[in-house]
Amino acid sequence: MTKAQRQAIHELREAGYAIGIFSPDELRNASQQDVETTLMREGNEAIDVLSPPDPEDFEDEIDDKGTRVGLDILNRRSRALKFATQLLTIYRENL
């Protein structure tokens, strides 16, 4: 990665963008498009889970599956946080 590319990433991050980049070596012949699609899908889930919840989401109610709604949100938030942490670790190792 060139200095200009690293600078562009830094500027985007400073502007509030979430950045995830994998080098060709890291992709290990996986389809770039498939990886990007998966990252977008999982990233959108992470955003839903990690963004501040609506207070109504924590009402003590049971959904159709018998799961306490507030507990389900916390479980999804925990899984997304683990995923985001893994992505950040991989990214930082490759700066």
Q: What do you see in this structure?
A:
The protein is 63% helix and 0% strand. The protein contains four helices and no strands. Helix 3 (32-50) crosses helix 4 (69-93).
How would you sum up the major sheet? Answer: none
Total beta strand runs? 0
Helix content: 55-70%
Q: In terms of structural class, how would the helical and strand content be classed?
A: mainly alpha
Poorly predicted residue ranges: none
Count, helices: 4
Question: How much of the sequence is in beta strands?
Answer: under 5%
Oligomeric nature of the chains: single chain
Q: State the separation between the terminal residues, measured CA to CA.
A: 8 Å
**Helix/strand order, N-terminal first:** HHHH
**Gross geometry:** elongated
Rg over C-alpha atoms, rounded to the nearest angstrom: 17 Å
In round numbers, the mean pLDDT is: 80
Quickly describe the structure.
The protein has 95 residues and is mainly alpha-helical. It is built from four helices and no strands.
List the helices and strands and how they pair.
Blueprint lengths: L2 H12 L9 H4 L4 H19 L18 H25 L2
Helix pairs in contact: 3-4
Keywords:
95 residues, mainly alpha, 0% strand
